[in-house]
Design brief:
The chain is an all-alpha fold. The protein folds into two domains: about 100 residues; about 140 residues, no CATH class. Helices cover about 60% and strands about 0% of the residues. The chain has nine helices and no strands. Helix 5 packs antiparallel against helix 6 and helix 5 runs parallel beside helix 7. The two termini are about 35 Å apart.
């Protein structure tokens, strides 16, 4: 971040920084680290409160600039620390950007370097914003392709053609992020929703593919895939 107030690492890096801050706040043995991080955490929150209202349109990419993914992380942080002002800002923007969306072109995903799904990330943030019954209706309009049986073939995991390539390795991360987003979407629906089995089946398939790729063989993947794996396995962002 620059002194003139411009947020250069928004939204991806700032959202992960807030996730780290939230994690440290919840960890009794990390109180000193949490205290030391607090000044930076405060600056990030202040900058986001200023920057987010200026954001006129969402970024629907499959990489760092994506808006929906960052919104989800920020909302989880604001819930943990009780920052209602920040939560309201993000929820307002999410509703402004996504509430009228429909027929997400899931068949166009992924792009060749994606580690995030534009469609699933949007649904994953909206399940944080809408009550379960309203989210179910919204999801029907947004992703009508979700089947009402346990068939997982509606969304297949990806295989990186070259895990040693910094960009192509992104597809291994896509499987992990898809898995946790699918789990979040299922958790946001009413318990009797007939789409849950298909969503969970797809989540399981993506989790298996994604976790298999978490190795130390290639630094271009190993330095970040582990964080995605932990986020998935810890069910971070999903209320029990």
């Amino acid at each position: 971040m620059r002194q003139d107030g411009r947020v250069l690492s928004a939204p991806y890096g700032l959202a992960w920084l807030l996730q780290l801050a939230a994690e440290l706040r919840q960890w009794d043995d990390a109180r000193r680290m949490s205290f030391n991080l607090r000044p930076l955490e405060t600056v990030v929150v202040d900058r986001l409160r200023t920057w987010l209202p200026k954001l006129a349109l969402p970024v629907r990419s499959g990489e760092h600039s994506q808006t929906a993914f960052a919104f989800g992380l920020i909302l989880d942080y604001s819930t943990i620390v009780g920052d209602e002002e920040l939560s309201t800002v993000v929820q307002t923007k999410a509703e402004q950007f996504y509430s009228s969306d429909h027929d997400c072109p899931l068949a166009y995903e992924p792009s060749g370097e994606d580690f995030l799904s534009p469609c699933l990330a949007e649904a994953d943030v909206m399940r944080r914003v809408l009550p379960a019954t309203e989210f179910a209706v919204w999801l029907s309009n947004f992703m009508p392709q979700i089947p009402h049986d346990r068939n997982a073939d509606w969304l297949s995991p990806q295989v990186s053609p070259d895990p040693s390539d910094p960009k192509l390795a992104h597809l291994d991360g896509l499987n992990l992020s898809r898995a946790w987003m699918l789990e979040g979407i299922a958790a946001g629906l009413p318990q009797n929703d007939p789409r849950i089995p298909a969503i969970q089946s797809a989540a399981e398939a993506h989790a298996r593919a994604g976790l298999t790729a978490v190795t130390g063989e290639h630094y271009v993947g190993s330095h970040w895939l582990g964080t995605f794996a932990v986020y998935l396995l810890s069910k971070r962002g999903i209320s029990e």
